[in-house]
Amino acid sequence: MSRAHRRTAVLSAAVLAVPLFLTGPATAAPPPEVDDETGAGELLVIGHRGASGYRPEHTLASYELAARMGADYIEPDVVSTSDGVLVTRHENEISGTTDVAEHPEFADRRTTKTIDGVELTGWFTEDFTLAELRTLRAVERLPDVREENTLYDGLYQVPTLDEVLELRAELSRELGREIGVYIETKHPTYFDGIGLSLEEPLLAALDEAGLDQRRSPVFIQSFETTNLRELDQVVDVPLVQLLSATGAPADLVAAGDPRTYADLSTAAGLAGVGEYADGVGPEKAQIIPREADGTLGEPTSFVADAHAADLLVHPYTFRNENTFLPTELQEGTAPDDYGRAIDEQLTFWETGIDGLFTDNPDTGVVSRDLFLDEEQAAA
Ligand code: G3P
Ligand code: CA
């Protein structure tokens, strides 16, 4: 199925499978022009850590809800267990997203490590076998902001990547559209250094699932550069260089390379990224910075510079709650109340981005479809 036809299916499936309150009004916007080679022109809603605005992140329940809400892609971050199995967590230190601290049998695993230059104390996935990790249960990372999500604390295990790929296939069949996976390798240099390289099991899992072709519904993303350059030599699926408004890639720091994310984000830096990557995932402030008072400022040249380098642009992370929104789009004073998240996303769509990561995929679908409606009305 072409991407253009897939978008029609995406909209149809979302309308059929999801209650209206989750999707907003159905729209009849035609698909945008899509370049079948690069995918440019397709506007993607990426379920960040699943639908982490509504369920504890990186659980099968979170990924499933994201797909049912209409996300085009679900986003697993991967780390390794001690026996080399890829599991999905945002970081290898798991005290913030599991109940590990309540397991006395693992009390002696609590330790202090330095990961990418940051000293952390807690429990680490690489110190647990998969069987041990499976005795833990996921908990909400942000209980103060997302109190409703604590309803689900203790219900779900830490998934393996293989399970996520199986879920993807099942949901794709059920929903009648391809659900993509947007997989992030977390701390690849660190895991290389402890003999638990992430890339080999990742490629094996994609191969096993039949997801290793150029047009497979897969992106591989990384905040580091070296592993993406190496992957570019051996895989066909598109690669995405993650960027940040601050700091530097951990692999470059480890190698004594002085380049920062700011260097990679200039027009020249992006041209260099374009030599090995197909897209970039910038922090959203790199596209529209905030003013000192917290309001949205003027868009930068980032999107144009990235597109000039033939890079897709998928910024992170869009969230509904006031605490994450620009000042002028907040509603009321409670940090955890929802503000005008759709308006924020519309402003970003108008900069020409190709997709966005959101904790609230239903909101992302509504904003994307409203934007397409506006584009059609203006044409
Ligand atoms: O991968 C895109 C976005 O998820 C990057 O931020 O820290 O949530 O993985 P993070
Ligand atoms: Ca991520």
Write the layout of secondary structure elements.
Blueprint: H1 3-17, H2 20-23, E1 44-48, H3 60-68, E2 73-75, E3 77-80, E4 86-88, E5 111-115, E6 118-122, H4 130-133, H5 161-175, E7 180-185, H6 188-193, H7 199-208, E8 218-222, H8 226-234, E9 239-242, H9 250-254, H10 261-264, H11 267-273, E10 279-281, H12 302-308, E11 312-313, H13 341-349, E12 355-358, H14 361-378
Parallel strand pairs: 1-2, 1-12, 2-7, 3-7, 7-8, 8-9, 9-10, 10-11
Antiparallel strand pairs: 3-4, 5-6
Helix pairs in contact: 3-5, 11-12, 13-14
This protein binds SN-glycerol-3-phosphate and calcium ion (CA).
List its traits.
single chain, 379 residues, alpha/beta, TIM Barrel, ten-stranded mixed sheet, two-stranded antiparallel ribbon, 14 helices, 32% helix, 13% strand, globular, binds SN-glycerol-3-phosphate, binds calcium ion
Note down, in words, how this protein is organized.
By secondary structure, the chain is of the alpha/beta class. It has a single domain, classed as TIM Barrel (Alpha-Beta Barrel), CATH 3.20.20.190. It has helices at 3-17, 20-23, 60-68, 130-133, 161-175, 188-193, 199-208, 226-234, 250-254, 261-264, 267-273, 302-308, 341-349, 361-378; strands at residues 44-48, 73-75, 77-80, 86-88, 111-115, 118-122, 180-185, 218-222, 239-242, 279-281, 312-313, 355-358. The strands form two sheets. Strands 1, 2, 3, 4, 7, 8, 9, 10, 11 and 12 form a ten-stranded mixed sheet that branches. A two-stranded antiparallel ribbon has the order 5-6. Helix 12 (302-308) links the parallel strand 10 (279-281) and strand 11 (312-313). It is globular and about 60 Å long. The relative contact order is 0.13. The chain binds SN-glycerol-3-phosphate and calcium ion. SN-glycerol-3-phosphate binds at residues 48, 77, 90, 184, 221, 242, 281, 316-317, 357.
